[in-house]
Write a structure and sequence with these properties.
Blueprint: H1 2-31, H2 41-46, H3 48-61, E1 64-71, E2 76-84, E3 95-102, E4 109-118, E5 121-127, E6 132-142, E7 145-155
Antiparallel strand pairs: 1-2, 2-5, 3-4, 3-6, 4-5, 6-7
């Protein structure tokens, strides 16, 4: 009788461990920002031809976008875009929007609109706390022209130190 109870306990224990393992994996998949599905991916797939035409039109515009990041306050960096047209002239009075995301945390997207600070220079502070590869999805509209570009860059972001600490 005792052997029967022992074997039943072992089987129930293995089943309980299996259920617990599945619960932990499901929890990790639902809460970890490393696990991400591209937002509106079905709509993007359905409109792929339109998006490809938009990229081709952007290429034909001949605009050049230079991206730079510099330290700003605490966990932010200053994102600066310099936009010039095909003749090297600054693109003025444009509407500039950027989606910035760390590729290892693709669920955490920073959406920002950049303000024009000088002729063709647009900037805004963006929350960026992690070193690594960042993706910037740029959309610039001026008049009837639309320019889109995806830019990836490896950034080294120093760790944040609590106030009053050294090295």
């Amino acid at each position: 009788m005792r052997a029967k109870v022992t074997w039943i306990s072992i089987i129930v224990g293995i089943l309980a461990l299996s259920v617990l393992s599945y619960a932990v994996l499901i929890f990790a998949a639902l809460t970890d920002p490393s696990f991400a599905i591209e937002e509106n991916y079905e709509a993007k797939a359905a409109n792929w031809n339109e998006l490809a035409r938009e990229r081709d039109k952007s290429d034909r515009l001949g605009w050049t976008v230079t991206l730079a990041t510099t330290p700003a306050e605490r966990d932010h960096r200053r994102l600066e875009l310099t936009v010039t047209d095909s003749h090297g002239q600054p693109v003025r009075e444009a509407t500039v929007a950027v989606e910035a995301l760390h590729v290892a945390r693709a669920a955490d997207i920073e959406r920002v609109s950049l303000a024009e600070e000088a002729d063709g220079v647009y900037a805004v502070p963006v929350r960026m706390r992690r070193s690594g590869i960042w993706e910037f999805r740029i959309r610039i509209e001026q008049g009837g022209d639309v320019y889109v570009q995806t830019h990836r860059e490896k950034l080294l972001i120093p760790p944040i130190r609590p106030p009053g600490t050294t090295s």
